[in-house]
Amino acid sequence: MMASYAMLMVMNATEAPFEAFGKEFVHPVFTQLVRRRGADGRIPVRTLDRGASSSAAAVEPAGYPGGSYDTSLLVKYEHHVARHIWFGEERGPKKELKVAVHGLKLTSRVPLALPPQMESWVSRSDLSSLQRTSLNKIDTNLVSTFVERWHLETSSFHMPFGEMSITLDDVACLLHLPIRGIFWSPQDVTEELAVELAVDYLGVSQGQAQSHVRSCRGSYYKLEWLYDLFVHHRAAFSWAYATRAYLLMLVGSTIFADKTFTLVEARYLLLFRDLDGCSGYSWGAAALVTLYRYLGDASMYSCKQLGGYPTLLQCWIHEYFPTVGKRGENWKPADNCGLPRAMRWSYRQGVLKVDDLRPILDELTPADVIWRPFEDHRAWCVFDEICLYRGCLKWGETVVSYLPDRCLRQFGYRQYVPSPPLDCMMATDIDVDWISYHQSVIAVIGSSTVATTPSDAVDGYLEWYYCVYHPRLVPPHRDAPREVPVPVYDVGPSDPDWARVSTLIHRYLRQVNAEEEDPQFSDLFEALHISRSH
User: Fold this and answer.
1) At a CB cut-off of 8 Å and minimum separation 6, what does 486 contact?
2) pLDDT single digits (tens) 432-468
3) What spatial distance separates the first Cα and last Cα of the chain, rounded to whole Å?
4) Which residue ranges does the record assign to the Aminotransferase-like plant mobile domain (predicted)?
5) Which residues contact 217 (CB under 8 A, 6 or more apart)?
6) Separation between Cα atoms, residue 74 and residue 471, nearest integer Å
7) Which has the minimum average pLDDT: 56-65, 313-322, 394-403?
8) Phi and psi dihedrals of 264, rounded to 5?
9) Is 231 helix (H, G, I), strand (E, B) or coil?
10) Most buried residue, 107, 113, 329, 370, by most Cβ within 10 Å?
């Protein structure tokens, strides 16, 4: 393989990163060799012919056209949707995913006010914010285009300028869910146990529970059935039964939404057996684990659906990418009175399809990103250092990697070449690691410094990035070289407000194909240069 991860890590420790590879290292972007692709589109690594020199082999490109060239990191790329898109292969006639959306139904099912007896339990559960955070609809084209850039090996979106991810801090600010707390390890729930749980904790008869679980064809409850139980028990003043049905419907319509679109797993009822004791969970981690899991599934070419909480993903996009996609804004951050940040946004029907959005994302620069969008939200959501924990998160039997060292710019730190991703299959003490998070936090930020500009990165980072990843989805014209050049970006303004001005001007000039020599755009170009100097 062209360059091992250990060799690449040397780049972070030297002023001249490529000297670490020795004189024989040549980045694949700059090679002119042409070789036949295999049936899977991959360029095979060729063994040396007799008499061939080792230096000649060192410059031969390996991996996939457009990246990754070093295939040691993205081990599942062969099955990733991005590989197929590069060769013009789509998931199906519809390029956008089918997304689990419950916002409209939830709006009609959540009352303006709960009875005081229920309100007390719902408030103590730390889930009450989920009653109002859901978007009524989801822009499936926008969401799908970002999913195509998600890679489960790194738990991150691969943008043209580096990695970004949905972090624990993002969840805390957008949803106001607690991120500290314990992980949940449930027992297996069979259909028989699902019936018993419904009888004991939802107040239904044995026959009614059996009939309902049988109709679900598994250990599930229907969301509509739970809503009906909530209404029934509320009218009968059976507050505990009503609260459990309501909370289970709430999480099944938001953070635990799955690809059935109508059901919720019966095992989640176990979370609400003790209504006075369900507040100790890390609900923020639960939301993130579930979404990471479904993003990983949906990034594969064979998958056509996305589960999890799509509002979390779309509102994250709205916060970080102000010029991508259409959105309504209910209030400005300065006017917030302590509401979850997701409630800032409302759905507006977008006109751009997946085909339109792919090249837009390919052309994004660091200046198009608001790297720290929640700094004006700290009065209601103080930053917690546990968000810099590097390790595995788990919820139930699902375990995912949480790797803030790959998106340090979102935390205000200079981005370095990160360590290899974790193998969560080998993790044995996740709960202990989570409790003793300080050590991993020190390791994450100890190798970095505070960013001097919002998009600050070490020298050589992008060269490494374009070697091990596939940062662009739209291939160049077939007559052009298939290798992707490493971009060079302006430093950009250090002030977030000026960065926003710069982004908006730059996006408009790009949309109209403006040339700096054109007199009609001279004032805008002058304004762009002024904004970038601050």
Assistant:
1) 27, 29, 462, 463, 466
2) 999 999 999 999 999 899 998 888 999 999 999 999 9
3) 43
4) 130-465
5) none
6) 12
7) 56-65
8) -135, 145
9) helix
10) 370
